[in-house]
Amino acid sequence: MLVGILIAWAGFVPYFTMTGVVPDGMTLQKFAGSVYQERVRLIGAGAMGVAAIWTLLMLARPVIDGVRESLAAVRMPDADKGKHRMDIDMSAKSVGLVFLVTVVGLLAIFYAFVSPENLPAGETLTFTVVGVGVAVLMGFFVAAACAYMAGLVGTSSSPISGIGILAIIVASLVMYALCESFGIFALPGGEKFATATAIFTTSIIMAIACISNDNMQDLKTGYLVGATPWRQQVALLLGCVVGALVIAPVLNLLYEAYGFPGALPRPGMDPAQALAAPQAALMTTIAQGIFSSSLHWEYIYIGLALGVVLVIVDRVLRATTKSLCLPPLAVGMGIYLPPSVQTPLVVGAVLGYFLKKHLRTQGGEEAERKGSRRGTLFASGLIVGESIVGVVLAGVIVVSVTNGGSEAPLALVGKDFADTAEYLGLAVFAAFLVIFSNVVLSGKR
């Protein structure tokens, strides 16, 4: 990801700013930011797309083998199956019933999403069936690829970001063809409707990818500790239902409190205070660009070419060195994501490297293992704590706004304190790095 940052901010951004013309009244800093948003991020998207396709190609063989083994196990007579509880999965009939209920639910939800447009019944049904069909077909392959990587390495190695880009492109092209054939673009709000249906279809695919990540990670953990598969699978189904009931209200709470880039709930809100949603913003940009024919494909093509180069470099490094590699998807993310999102990741990775090296030098592999475990648990607590506090603060803001109060009910200073606040935030960040290092090195729990 650091390599991606350098490619973007030490390569493409300086090049485009030097070869471009700064608009009148715009500072060079803002011009560089607009260049990054409008051009460089599309290059990152192209690179991530190539990386996602390459990952799927690399996983094709094991995924096919896994599907073949699963089908063989389903057809196997009960007498030939092992009777140990760790060999018992949900029956094929139960899996088929769950799939059928899920598809029916998706059809109902998609129909409810499309029907307010008051299109002819045939067109509404066509959008519903095609949208769900695309989601289910892509979802099958996406689930196989993501689940394989999650089970093999972990959810952090799943190519979900690149898959999201491929999904929005496929969904947008399919919806574009349907809207063009039905004359939707000639209707008022037709382009907005097409964009919404493409994003809605992609959201189903992304949900499938995320759930497959979580399920395979849980099933692998259960296998390691001796759990019974069918019991886990039932619990995972219940988890999906509970998650759907909990996550949607929480996201709506965050939206009402802060908003998201390009989607603010109230007029006059500061866009700079909106919650960052880089992946969603990219999907919206791609979908809108396809439907309005304004997407700058030349930058996507540059990203595709760069992605091919990154794949080649990664394969060469893996073949000629013992430990070096350059994962193309991570580099593409480094180009696409803003530095404010990635800097903590890079700083954490560098700090973790030096802390592990110090522990290994001072106490050997055992000390490194224990220190790494302490650091992982402490960092996990920071992540969870930040998330909980964010939701609580969002609730306070929503309560304040709904009762006619301020959008910053806990503010102690005015907006003119912003510059000072940035330096204070940097100081707190540095202090936490020191605290984190002490926890890892001292052995405190």
Describe this structure in words.
The protein is mainly alpha-helical. The chain folds into two domains: 2-74 and 90-336, no CATH class; 339-442, no CATH class. It contains twelve helices and no strands. The protein has helices at 2-19, 28-75, 92-114, 121-152, 160-182, 190-225, 229-257, 278-292, 297-320, 328-336, 339-402, 418-442. Helix 1 packs across helix 2 and helix 4 (121-152) packs parallel to helix 6. The chain is globular and about 60 Å long. The two termini are 31 Å apart.
Q: Give the percentage of residues in beta strands.
A: under 5%
Rg, alpha carbons: 24 Å
What is the count of β-strands?
0
Oligomer: single chain
Distance between the termini: 31 Å
Keywords, separated by commas or semicolons:
445 residues, 2 domains, mainly alpha
Secondary structure topology:
Layout: H1 2-19, H2 28-75, H3 92-114, H4 121-152, H5 160-182, H6 190-225, H7 229-257, H8 278-292, H9 297-320, H10 328-336, H11 339-402, H12 418-442
What's this entry about, in short?
The protein has 12 helices and no strands. With 445 residues, the chain is mainly α.
